Amino acid sequence: MIDIKKLRDEIDHTGKILLTRGYELNKELFLSLDDQRKTLQLSVEELQSKRKKLSNDFGKIKSSGEDTSSLKIEIDTINKELKVKDELLQSVLISLNDFLLDIPNLPNDNVPLGSDETDNVVVKKCGEITSKNKIDHLEITNDIDTDLAAKLAGSRFSVLKGDIAKLQRALISFMLETAIKNGYQEFYVPYMANSESLKGTGQLPKFEEDLFKTTDNLYLIPTAEVPLTNIHSNDVIDEKDTPVKLTSHTPCFRSEAGSYGRDTKGLIRQHQFEKIELVQIVKSQNSMDSLDDLLSNAEEILELLELPYQVVELCTGDLGFSSSKTYDIEVWMPSQAKYREISSCSNFSDFQARRANIKIKSDDKKELAHTINGSALAVGRTLIALLENNYDGKKNINLPKSLVPFFGSEVVNISN
RNA sequence: GGAGAGUUGGCUGAGUGGUCGAAAGCGCCUCCCUGCUAAGGAGGUAACUGGGUAACUGGUUCGAGGGUUCGAAUCCCUCACUCUCCGCCA
Questions:
Q1: pLDDT for residue A136 is more than 70
Q2: Handedness of CA A348, A118, A211, A19 (dihedral sign)
Q3: Is residue A167 helix, strand or coil?
Q4: Which of A43, A212, A362, A379 has an alpha carbon 20 to 30 Å from A395's alpha carbon atom?
């Protein structure tokens, strides 16, 4: 949620900024709602104040045994008017809140302008593309079985077998250990979240169709960002405890509504995938440094895995709803001969903190925190990048040496 | 699944219809006393939010939502969560 005061005071400027990311601010609607709010609120509060005084008088008069009937009539009149105005006020407040919840975050000043992903900026390329492999992971091994998964659950799921399943487990351990080494505290969290939590991080109310909802009104988490960030919802964090650095491995569940026909083959786009998430909660003045820090933590995984990748800065038009600045990390996928997203690292400024009510206290001053998160990394995509980049054309996948201790061997048996 | 007890300020905890945003204690802050420390004394100390340049001044909040009432922390209903006992279970 953006700052309503800023919206009020700098509405034209804010509208312009929002337009750079493709959001058309309905200025008239906002000004009219806010104006109604002000008028109604003043009048409701005045009536409440009057009633409070008169009700006090009522008590005194009654205890002295005198007649209260005329006073009651007066209070009844106030209550009638109050009821009408308060109901109006509540409905205006709801509309105003809905309006605010729908507005995306403001892009940071230095985010490149652009309308869609073609305007994103490649910041750097790292690692050398050496693989001559052309075939994709499904052809490399039969141990990624999407047919079997279809029998068990449906499309966009997968079953991993044998060494491939073990490799995924090794990647998870490796990534978590790297995060811990970098100062993140590991968490095991619920894989379902309530609507409050999802509202806090910005998935609700606008993107409900992207989520799986359970029969008792919980949602399967689309990312560990949701539980990790909300660990500190409604908290006031002491400055000396910042930066707060959290990590968790979780499965992630996404309905992929609206992505029919995209990446239908293989592990790229699944309803369920494993991810290690990094979250930082920091003071506002440090947040861009923290984003760089978190980005480097994610890049480190790719470096240790010796996978070629590039870092892309998203332009204003391609930013996610809650983000003020995002770097995507894209790994080289030989079978597609292009870079594919494997991590997205974002600074949400105070957008999530305002929704989730996360504050930081320093010298008696309390201010909204800034939240930063990113994947380090999406495990399924890392797995296939590893398979495709390291496939020797015969039957072996040679592992980078940093992964060997976690996998327990240098070669993955792909069994076909 | 069954039975019961709870949820009040930073913390402990009192309050069962008005003078209660709320006793008392702890903690914290300021001052006094003191060579220092300890002890002691005096005072202060909730959050959120509206209006106002400000001084200031309103409102809301006692788990959440609804109801009764002129008036609700207090009475009634619904829900969430916590704890205890029994059962069951990884």
A1: yes
A2: positive
A3: helix
A4: A379
- Which positions in strand B are less than 7 Å from the protein's CB atoms? 18-19, 48, 50-51, 58-60, 70-71
For residue A301, the model assigns a pLDDT of: 98
Q: For strand B, is any atom closer than 7 Å to the CB of A45?
A: yes
- A158 Cβ contact partners less than 8 Å away, ≥ 6 residues apart: A144, A145, A146, A149, A267, A270, A380
User: What is the distance in angstroms measured between the alpha-carbon CA of A69 and the sugar C1' of B59?
Assistant: 27
Superfamily covering domain A26-101: Serine-tRNA synthetase, tRNA binding domain (1.10.287.40)
Does strand B come within 7 Å of the CB of A147? no
Q: Using the CA of A45, which nucleotide's C1' is the nearest one?
A: B59
- Contact by Cβ (8 Å): A373, A277: yes
pLDDT 10s digits, A207-243? 999 999 988 888 999 999 999 999 998 888 888 888 9
Evaluate if the CB of A8 falls below 7 Å from strand B. no
The fold adopted by the segment(s) A117-413 is: BirA Bifunctional Protein; domain 2 (3.30.930)
Q: How large is the average pLDDT for residues A145-158?
A: 94
Please check whether strand B approaches the CB of A55 to within 7 Å. Answer: yes
Nucleotide nearest to A53 (CA to C1'): B71
The CA radius of gyration of chain A, in Å to the nearest whole number, is 27
Q: Which nucleotide is closest to the Cα of A41 by its C1'?
A: B50
What pLDDT, on the 0 to 100 scale, is given for residue A392?
83
CA A151 → C1' B87, Å?
38
- Per-residue pLDDT at A69 exceeds 90: no
Inter-residue contact A56 to A63 (CB < 8 Å): no
Q: Would you state the pLDDT for residue A416?
A: 64
Residue nearest to nucleotide B60 (CA to C1'): A45
Does the nearest atom of strand B lie within 7 Å of A234's Cβ?
no
Residue A42 clears pLDDT 90, i.e. is over it: yes
pLDDT tens-place string over residues A259-286: 777 887 888 899 999 999 999 999 998 8
Residue extents of the structural domains in chain A: 26-101, 117-413
